[in-house]
Specification:
Blueprint: E1 5-11, H1 15-26, E2 31-35, H2 42-47, H3 49-67, H4 83-108, E3 111-114, E4 116-121, E5 124-128, E6 136-144, E7 148-150, E8 163-164, H5 166-169, E9 178-182, H6 186-197, E10 201-206, H7 217-229, E11 232-236, E12 238-246, E13 249-256, E14 263-267, E15 269-272, E16 276-278, E17 311-313, H8 324-338, E18 352-354, E19 359-364, H9 367-373, E20 377-383, H10 388-393, E21 399-405, E22 411-418, H11 421-433, H12 438-442, H13 453-463
Parallel strand pairs: 1-2, 1-6, 2-3, 6-17, 8-15, 9-10, 9-15, 10-11
Antiparallel strand pairs: 4-5, 5-6, 7-16, 12-13, 13-14, 18-19, 19-22, 20-21, 21-22
Helix pairs in contact: 1-4, 1-8, 3-4, 3-6
């Protein structure tokens, strides 16, 4: 093969794309990856999941030092926030991880091309980058893994200075006096939490009547109560009509979602966090006969094949939740399918996590979904206030809830709000993958004292009584 001929070309170097490229190379394929950013890792690693989690952890430590250390018998002097150092640490975490992916590309022989890739025909991608204009790569298979971008609201211009998307909210030069967050999904709540901990007044405005709309409603209600105690204000059932400059600040016009008189709030920063949209523009999809759906997504079958032979699509550009780990699973599976293997992705068992304090996590069906499907189920719940490890660490808010089929006891879903919820939900995801019953989880020995015992006790609560409540 020449230096432009490959078995596989992956367009996009985010979580789905780089995993697909590396796995295919591990399986003996000659692989290229085209990524427009200078650093690999996509939105998640550069301006999404990773920098936000770095800021969440740093701000959590700052808040604990402010409010919790005294109760542990730890007395310190006056706290001082060094925002520049906090941001520098976040940037280093990102840089180290992006370098790690570049190292893995070198290790497994993935050829990386920097620049925009445009599909000109099945199996052909033309590069647009300095020094590469017009260069065309050819391959037996193409995988589209270009991810997503922040959605906006009509009439509200995002300048990444005063009106910001999640990208701008990760790098504010100072702590806002008042941050108004538009959207009560996981991005809005996580970034609102960061800046609230660091001293900002935070107001979250949500069009719907609840926070975390995609999660179990009971989890959302508890999340709102806890974040309200932490000082975040919520305006639910409210729409944002306009954001206008007013001196050094901003004036935000709000109105009831169902109609009514508008009102105004003043803020010095507005974060627009109303979701994300697939990044499918300027890819040349029309040249190969691929038409996106009404949400801008590329239609694929269960194996991520498009309607065009040899062209695949994964991650945020296709159906399903816009989650990095979902994209990774699809990238891994597509690479193995190209190698003749028969992997699967179980879309019924993809966890979702909100990394606030406490965390919230869910996997499988919610109660609302089971009711809509007419499935009879039982509920088992256990509060962290009755868990010994949570008592020891002072993280007693929240609960574990497990939903099981009323007839077979098979676990259908689980929803957790509490300490390390994102970690705890993995045990239930594994159990669901193997078709476990709640009794299987309950009768599995869990170490004591651990947070995981709350999962065990919730499982007992499905079909019997837990011991510790």
């Amino acid at each position: 093969m020449s230096d432009t001929e490959f078995d596989l070309v992956v367009v996009g170097g985010g979580p789905g794309g780089y995993v697909c490229a590396i796995r295919a190379a591990q399986l003996g394929m000659r692989v290229a990856c085209v990524e427009r950013r200078p650093a690999l890792g996509g939105t998640c690693l550069n301006i999404g999941c990773i920098p936000s989690k770095a800021l969440l952890h740093s701000s959590h430590l700052f808040a604990r030092a402010q409010h919790d250390f005294v109760g542990h018998g730890i007395r310190i002097g006056a706290l001082e926030l060094d925002l520049a150092a906090l941001m520098k640490r976040k940037d280093k975490v990102v840089a180290d991880l992006t370098k790690g992916i570049a190292f893995l590309f070198d290790k497994y022989g993935v050829t990386r091309f920097e620049g925009h890739g445009r599909i000109t025909a099945p199996g052909r991608v033309r590069l647009a980058a300095a020094g590469e204009e017009g260069r065309e790569l050819t391959a037996r298979h193409l995988v589209i893994a270009t991810g997503s971008e922040a959605a906006s609201l009509p009439g509200i211009a995002i300048d990444e200075e005063r009106v910001v998307s999640s990208t701008g909210a990760l790098s504010l030069p100072e702590v806002p006096r008042h941050l108004l967050v538009v959207g009560a999904g996981y991005i809005g709540l996580e970034l609102g939490t960061v800046w609230r901990r660091l001293g900002a007044e935070v107001t979250v405005v949500e069009f719907l009547d609840r926070v975390t709309p995609g999660m179990d409603r009971e989890i959302g209600r508890q999340m709102q109560r806890i974040l309200t105690r932490q000082g975040i204000s919520f305006r639910l059932g409210t729409r944002v009509e306009a954001v206008t400059e007013k001196g050094e600040g901003l004036e935000v016009t709000l109105a009831p979602a169902e109609g009514g008189d508008p009102e105004t709030l003043e803020a010095d920063r507005v974060l627009v966090a109303v979701g994300r949209r697939p990044h499918t523009a300027e890819l040349g999809l029309e040249t190969v006969g691929i038409a996106v759906d009404d949400q801008g997504r590329i239609p694929v079958d269960d194996d991520c094949r498009t309607a065009v032979e040899g062209v695949w699509a994964i991650g945020d550009v296709v159906r399903g939740p816009m989650l990095a780990h979902k994209a990774m699973e699809e990238g891994h599976a597509v690479a193995e399918r190209l190698a003749g293997q028969k992997p699967h992705v179980n879309y019924e068992v993809i966890p979702g996590v909100v990394y606030t304090e406490p965390e919230a996590a869910g996997v499988g069906a919610t109660e609302q979904e089971l009711k809509e499907r007419g499935i009879a189920y039982r509920v088992g719940k256990f509060p962290f206030s009755a868990n010994s490890r949570a008592r020891c660490t002072g993280t007693r808010d929240g609960f574990v809830k497990i939903l099981a089929d009323a007839a077979t006891d098979r676990v259908l879903g689980a929803h957790i709000i509490g300490p390390e919820a994102g970690t705890l939900v993995a045990e239930i995801a594994v159990a669901m993958e193997f078709g476990a019953a709640s009794e299987d989880i309950a009768r599995t020995c869990h170490a004591h004292p651990t947070l995981e015992e709350a999962v065990k006790e919730a499982a007992w609560a499905v079909f019997d009584r837990p011991v510790h409540v």
